[in-house]
């Protein structure tokens, strides 16, 4: 800590980070041990965070992240979208296919930014706000691949999983704290051209760098 920072705010943010890293919540005692402060301090932190709906406590007294965090999280999408647009435009124009940035939203993949190519006669209509299960489509499967093989997830290709006759290619965003997603393209084709996979990986790296 330095003279310019707030110890109380720092502790409150650490509480949120600790709770975000667990599925079953933490008790006051557990938080006290992990923060290295007494239980009274933890009670005050939790009471303040609870007033803002940033945490909630169940009947057993375990604290979990609250729904207020979701409201804050919604404001992240426009910032992420803005940072990703240059790479997506370049990808769409280069490949001649609809490019998209997809983020995890619960058990679903949510398209938060979409760019269509300007020079093609036809392309797949793919809109921001489109949702689909993570287990279907290249965008979601790429995210799952990054969870399973974080060091070398590569890229993912699919055919006809979300729309008949449409192929998809996607690569996950890597090394971006707090953001889990992928960059990809969708096109009307029987087979994804060989150069598309590596080009999608390049675009995913560009977006990741813009978000760091």
TrEMBL record:
Start and end residues of each HTH iclR-type domain: 6-67
Superkingdom classification of source: Bacteria
PANTHER family for this protein: HELIX-TURN-HELIX TRANSCRIPTIONAL REGULATOR, ICLR FAMILY, HTH-TYPE TRANSCRIPTIONAL REPRESSOR ALLR
Keyword Metal-binding listed: no
Gene3D superfamilies per UniProt: 3.30.450.40, Winged helix-like DNA-binding domain superfamily/Winged helix DNA-binding domain
Record keywords, A-Z: DNA-binding, Transcription, Transcription regulation
Domain IclR-ED: 68-212
Organism of provenance: Streptomyces hirsutus
Protein name: Helix-turn-helix domain-containing protein
InterPro entries in UniProt: ArsR-like_HTH, GAF-like_dom_sf, HTH_MetabolicPath_Reg, Tscrpt_reg_IclR_C, Tscrpt_reg_IclR_N, WH-like_DNA-bd_sf, WH_DNA-bd_sf
